[in-house]
Amino acid sequence: MENKKNSPVKKQDGDNMKKMVSIILTMVLIAGTISLMACGSSEEVENDQAATEEEESSHEETEETSSQSEWWSDVPVYAGAKEIQKGSWAIPADDGEFSKVTWKYYECSDSAAKVSAYYKDEMPEEDWNETFWMESQDTSWGYYYKNNQEDGAMVWVSTDGNKTIIAVMRGGQ
Length: 173
Known about the structure:
Blueprint: H1 8-38, H2 42-63, H3 66-72, E1 82-90, E2 100-108, H4 112-125, E3 129-135, E4 139-146, E5 151-160, E6 163-172
Antiparallel strand pairs: 1-2, 2-6, 3-4, 4-5, 5-6
């Protein structure tokens, strides 16, 4: 009788779950950070945002290499969405975990429902497989994978006043 406890299928399911949990926890931390940033005075936020935009625009062309843009070329960007923040990190790879993670925040004036529907339609067009999609009153989010689960992406859509905020995170080996 075969021992199913150590089968490759169970290990792969466990690795997938570790990846999803890591991405979900990261997104929760990022969402919390955004919430805390939103608590500052509007003057502070405007000054910080202007300084950040100036700094990003002066470094934007040199920071994003062609390999980084190619890496994001399979992640659709909602038409009319304006990129408001981005970041990335790389760590030594552990078995089954992403070693490179990049995220981008966008905002637009269309409804969150319309933006969510766009990503649900367009991610599969770029060969992303949907693992799950969840919706609550204020937030929708989903997780996708591709390339034999070597790459993963999370899309998070929420509203902030009259704006829709889109967070997209992409991880890979």
